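Notes to self, Sugar ABC transporter permease:
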Amino acid sequence: MAAHRHDAPIAWLLIAPALAGFAVFFAYPTLRGLYLSFTEFHVLTEPRWIGLGNFEQLFTDGEFWHSLLVTVYFVALSVVLGVLVSLVTAVILHRLAVSATVRGLMILPFLISGVVTALVWSWMLDPQLGIVNVLLTKLTGEPVLFFGSGAWAVPTLAGLNVWKSMGYNAVLIFAGLQTIPSTVYEAGRIDGASEPQMFRRLTVPLLRPILVMVVVLTVISSFQIFDIVQVTTKGGPANASKVLQMYIYDKAFGQFDFGYAATMSLALFVLLAAVTFAQLRMARAGESDTN
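result:
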């Protein structure tokens, strides 16, 4: 419109800081990483173009596939346990009409950094002095090596991840429950439906868009797990908890092979994009059964 014709310079001036930050901290690193994935780059030397050489190495790298399988196992545990616990917690909060203060306290673990979470729980789960193992020793007679056992390492890390994200996910699901009309449940009670039946046939279908969003966010954050693993197990014991991010970090900052690390990062990005797209398509994220 003629009245707003001269607003464009002011608009560009206002968004200039955001554009500069996007270009410097996102666009350039992304393009630089894409270029390095096709090169052999060891920091102290100039990048040498090798085409698809890194990708050929990727397909024959047994440690990469092992790390990917460990990551998938971790993600599966985090998603299944996290969504179930968050959903049940949100439904209980919704039915009991808990105060806003309690709901606010539930989100506190999400606000704690991953490093602090890992440190606190590593102390609590210590096999000798941790309060959890002190109680387990009194009950069973022996401690559990939560971070020192190959069988327990990944489930324990997934449990920490669930504890940290459960409150945030529960608040999101609780907000979705607020949008479901109470008349839906009244009609269900009139038809003689029990609470478990209404949960399975009414609550879950009507929450599909929110649940899909929670699942997608949980999958993405779980695939990117690093800080908790680095502080607690460092990928051990015997690489039992060496997730893909740990392997990428080791290649880049331990072996200074930034070209191959960039290739693995690109592969992780493509994998996350494919998984997210498949989830949104299969779960019909934009639909619910309200009608």
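- The mean pLDDT is 87.
- The longest strand covers residues 39-40.
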